Amino acid sequence: MRRSSLAEPPAGAKRFAPATVEALCEVLARANAEQIPLEIAGANTLGGMGSPARASTIVTTLALNALIAHEDADLTCAMQSGITLSAFDKTLAQHRQFVPLDAPLRTKATIGGTVASGWLSPRRHLYGRARDLIIGTEIALVNGTLAHAGGMVVKNVTGYDMSKLYAGSFGTLGVLTRVNFKTLPLPRARRALLAKLPENTRARAAAQLTALSVIPAATIFVEGFRKNIEGADGIDGRTFVLLEGSEALLERGTREIRTALGRAGVPETTIFDMGCGAMLERIADACVASLGQRSITYRSLGLADSAMERATRLRDAANRQRLFTDLLFDANNGDVFVRLSDRDSRGFAAKIEQCHDELRAIDPRLTIVAGEAPIRAALDPWGEPPPAISYMRKLKAQFDRHNILNPGRFIVG
Amino acid sequence: MSELIARLKDALGADAVKAEREDLAVYAFDAYSQGRLPSAVVLPASTRDVSAAVKIARACGEPIVARGAGTGLCGGAIPAAGGVVFSFARMNRVLELDARNRRARVQPGLINLELTNAALPVGLFYAPDPSSQKVSTIGGNIGTNAGGPHCLSYGTTVNHVLGLEIVDESGEVVTTSLDDPGYDLTGALVGSEGTLAIVCSAWLRLMRVPEAVRVWLAAFPDFESASAAVSAIIGAGIVPTALEMLDRVMLEAVEAAFHAGYPTDCAAVLLVESAGVEEDIAAYESEIRRIVHEHGALAWRAAASQAERDALWAGRKGALGATGRIAPNYYIQDVVVPRTKLPHALRAVGEACAQHHIPVGNVFHAGDGNLHPLLLYDRREQQQVAAVIEAGNEILHAAVELGGAISGEHGIGYEKRGTLSRVFTADDLATMAGVREVFNASRSLNPEKIFPAGIRCAEVR
Questions:
Q1: Considering only CB atoms, which chain B residues are within 8 Å of A399?
Q2: How many alpha carbons fall within 13 Å on the CB side of residue A243?
Q3: What burial class does residue A204 get, using C-beta atoms within 10 Å of its C-beta: 0-12 exposed, 13-18 middle, 19+ buried?
Q4: What is the CATH number of the domain that holds B460?
Q5: Band of the pLDDT at B424, cuts 50, 70, 90?
Q6: Any chain A CB within 8 A of the CB of B96?
Q7: Which domain holds residue B228?
Q8: Which residue of A127, A373, B192, B290 is surrounded by the most CB atoms within 10 Å?
């Protein structure tokens, strides 16, 4: 890297947390002019996702954390990107509203990081993806200019929907400084149902739970993750079903779920009317819970009806390599998370490379979502490039010709 | 026969290429206006045909304009610079219906409503329902990111597109999927009005048919109280599946045409639909009813049967056509404002039209803040045409001043491209032009659309 004022900031630390959008733009423009690569981050709570950052100079949006507007009667809001998910949720909850982002480590995770990472909520089949709830963005481009897209209205086809490109772009097209959302009314009530799930009941339970007349807000099957998610299940798995809506809907949903699980041979279902949000948070946290240098977590996306089969195949392949597995999958959206681990880092390192290839044979698009940087660097965390990769690379070059923003971090290189 | 026509016929077959002047004239129009006469019209039967025709058109230096049913209201499908029009009338099938995963793969020429008709037997439906859904196509809906009354709770087209198969400007076939790692190209392509690629098939999300649906009417003495009721309903945390408003002008036109059951002795009517589980609907009804009465509703009525509901929706969706009884022509504006600004926006519409002596009717998606004033005029009267254009511009300006946008669901197309810079700065527009540069560097895909003349991609350096 060239020596420069930016690479060696006065404080000696190569970490910038601009307090204003203007200051951020200045940092970007200088880095671009001097061709200094930057790591773009929020709180880095999803820092274990994808390829490790290569840049040694970090720009974080943590200090850009203001609420810009909450037009509660319009069900819209605008936030600076560095605000944490918990602060965001709290602000909206004052007016009985919410935006279901459901990313891990919500007291630290930022809106910008959550959006830029394209984190997928297990409630999205009901409420939409984060990108579906974004109505506008402001982004600081690498040359230090600001560009806006969308606005503060809930329906808008004025020009290209640039926010769709920024969501999930891992900061490689620019730095999100502001995100506008349409908000949703908070459900009037919520209830969680937990049940132990012996493996021989799982397939029937999954089929039954996706055929209810009341669609649950989340239907998660868990195996392992015992330190992260409640439920001492021995060798059995367990299921977490979240209902959201009116009291009447909850009552009907509860009846249906109990009947469905009973039909599947599940012995007992426990109901929780308190602490449902905390349970959902623990599931989100488990998705990226790392055991240091002796674990790695993969995510497989796909059709809902193939989730259990993918989960089982991934687990069995890992077990054949004598790696431990913790597993969870989302019966509504088809996401599978599988954490592979060993007793120590040396044993893990010896097994993971071969196992990685076997897992990729099951799902070529398998993505690493949590793991230490050296392990991820050796494993090609993004998987097989998608068919439109050449367009993605051209877009990257169009927005960031010198590859200043998060180089090497994303699938575009 | 020109080289273009000969090569197209050779590649696609003679019956898939139209080159006679009277045929071409049909494709010079959409529901907004007339463009230039195209050089040829092709009717591909497959993605391979589309790819071949794109390569030929490019080799002959011809612009390429993808066209659905031509129902667009802002000139998005007119061949503004001539060229080859691609009609998808032959690519109109449901290719796959995957009921278990609630999705379908369809061709772009499929008529919107036909997808729902195909999915209903397995208890599913396709949610985006533009008023033109009996004729408009999925491809056109994807191009404009079409909305419709029910997108209030279900979202617009982009929320229902899971993946695309496209042909790019060089004729190559590329697929995108929401599950792919990388940039969300699917999201960027939806709503790009054929300026980035040609959609050849799409995976679409289907939704479960709700077990209960209710439709109610609330009549109001003025639009201010009706607008305030809209804000109060949304503000109370109730998001109905649809929340539409019709003013007296439109109520009279609709009743004369359809006898749909709307009252005509009030200034405005709210058409409210809720769907979901039976237990919730009853609770919503009493709450919405209380709110509208608190805001001065003159009357409240529930549609008593499926037939009554269908009649009310037929009237609402046929409202534009119904204006034929009261004026020879209409010009429909499409602007969107924050929901709480509806009374201000409606007042601005009234003032602009009064100042230019243009009668106006309003029928619109009140729950979304998406206005559709219909300016009624006679195209043969030059003065009226000029007045309509002036009033339309003033309405656009008012929407922007109120914090809104210049199109909620119809698109920018040819009509509004000159006004895009009212909403966006040069830097904002340069990012969009950068995307166009990546996909459509040759500018051969639907030229003279969306972007104001002279906007260039300022490569970010």
A1: 431, 434, 460
A2: 26
A3: middle
A4: 3.30.465.10
A5: very high
A6: no
A7: 212-321
A8: B192
Residues in chain A: 413
CB-CB under 8 Å, B151 with A395: no
In this prediction the ipTM stands at 0.96
Same-domain pairing of B122 and B221: no
Mutate: best of A34, A155, A365, partner B, most B CBs <10 A: A155
| Ramachandran region, residue A367 (left: φ > 0; alpha: ψ -120 to 50; beta: rest) | beta
Q: How far apart are CA B81 and CA B94, in angstroms?
A: 32
Using one digit for the tens of pLDDT, what is the confidence trace for B230-265? 999 998 888 899 999 999 999 999 999 999 999 999
A110: which residues sit within 8 A by CB, 6+ positions away? A42, A43, A45, A61, A62, A65, A81, A82, A83, A84, A85
Does the beta-carbon distance from A165 to B177 stay under 8 Å?
no
CATH number of the domain enclosing B228: 3.30.70.3450
- Per-residue pLDDT tens digits for A117-170: 999 999 999 999 999 999 999 999 999 999 999 999 999 999 999 999 999 999
Question: In B, residues 319-348, which contact A (CB 8 Å cutoff)?
Answer: 336-340
The pLDDT, as a whole number, for residue B35 is 75
**Closest in B158, B174, B237 to A387, CB measured:** B174
From CA A133, how far away is CA B359, in angstroms rounded? Answer: 37
Range of the domain at A354: 289-377
Is there a contact between B181 and A386 if contact means CB atoms under 8 Å apart?
Answer: yes
> Which residues of chain A lie closer than 8 angstroms to B181, CB-CB?
365, 367, 382-383, 385-386, 411
